[in-house]
Amino acid sequence: MLSLRADPWIPDFGTGFEARMGETPARAEPFVETEDWSVPITPQGVEPGTVWFVDGVRRVELRLIAGDESGRRAPGLFGSFAVGAVRCDGRAAFAEHSLGRSLVVGGGLLPDPLEVRVGGAVLAYQPATEPGGDPDTPLFGLQKAMMAQEAALASRMAAGKEELVLADGRLGFLDATRSPVVGVVKRFVRAYLDPDQDALLPRLGPGERTPLFGLVYEGQPLERYAWYTRLVRSRPEWHDHAGLVRCEVRVGLGLDGARALADRVSGLLPRFAGRPFDPRFPQNLVPVGGLERFLQHRLGHRGLIRRALMARLAEQAA
């Protein structure tokens, strides 16, 4: 008989156990911190201090089919994205944020820039192209643009005071910064660990973590240390990897520095675990959920933008 277990995420947001675009396969080196994967590591005496959370949102305004004079056709889209930061030091406050708009076409076809008036505003869509012809290729291009902005913002936040920066998703850059930057991945994308090490994950309690392991990407040296930690206590009806996040830091911190940071972050994250009303509970951290709602509002009215784009395309066709 099949074993059936629930994923707590609301279905409209996919699942917490799902492959994502741009997640490059990697090989794990499990024994960089210890060879003992039999028991969780429990951090002690963690002080939160000031923490920055960095995240972004993206939205497809209108999908397209683009064609050139030779008859080539490729999928495309008009898309918008926004990235921003929240500072938490006992209370939360929004900080810097920025917007971007892209006109992305696949198949290597590069469109011209396009501007469209929506009410009293003029929205400028910057052109971009991706080599593939898959229907989701333009969405990958929009995702890359947003991730580049997220990485740039996290780098700026980490260049200031010595305050912890938690960036939603994979660690987007490996340059040294004044403050440590940690990538926090809320989707379980693939099994990096062998079954012997993976067996520890269901046994993690809130705030406990696995040992550090290395992530090695093909053709590259070891650049990232990673670990898994649990945000909330698991429930019998959930699958056994629900409620976990994977964290990443750059190897340049050194093993001792990465170990200390892993303890601090693992002890800290349960304090910010998502609330049950969040559709991606519990992995979508509370400050990140609030930031996403703020950024989505900054993208503008979806219906008005779509209507203006349709009118602009009708004007071009005429």
What tags apply to this protein structure?
5 helices, 11 strands, alpha+beta, 318 residues, 11-stranded mixed beta sheet, single chain, 22% helix
Protein described:
This protein is an alpha+beta fold and 318 residues long. It has one domain. 22% of the residues lie in helices and 30% in strands. The chain is built from 5 helices and 11 strands; from the N terminus they run ββββββαββαβββααα. The chain has helices at 137-158, 195-198, 255-268, 286-298, 302-317, and strands at 26-29, 51-67, 73-88, 92-105, 114-118, 121-129, 164-168, 181-185, 213-217, 224-230, 244-250. The chain has an 11-stranded mixed β-sheet with strand order 1-9-10-11-8-7-2-3-4-6-5. The longest helix is centred in the middle third of the chain and has 22 residues, at 137-158. It is globular and about 70 Å long. The mean pLDDT is 89.
**Strand numbers in spatial order across the main sheet:** 1-9-10-11-8-7-2-3-4-6-5
Enumerate how many helices there are, as a single number. 5
Structural class: alpha+beta
The total number of structural domains is 1
Counting DSSP E segments of at least 2 residues, the number of strands comes to 11
Mean pLDDT over the full residue set: 89
Write the layout of secondary structure elements.
Layout: E1 26-29, E2 51-67, E3 73-88, E4 92-105, E5 114-118, E6 121-129, H1 137-158, E7 164-168, E8 181-185, H2 195-198, E9 213-217, E10 224-230, E11 244-250, H3 255-268, H4 286-298, H5 302-317
Parallel strand pairs: 2-7, 4-6, 7-8
Antiparallel strand pairs: 1-9, 2-3, 3-4, 5-6, 8-11, 9-10, 10-11
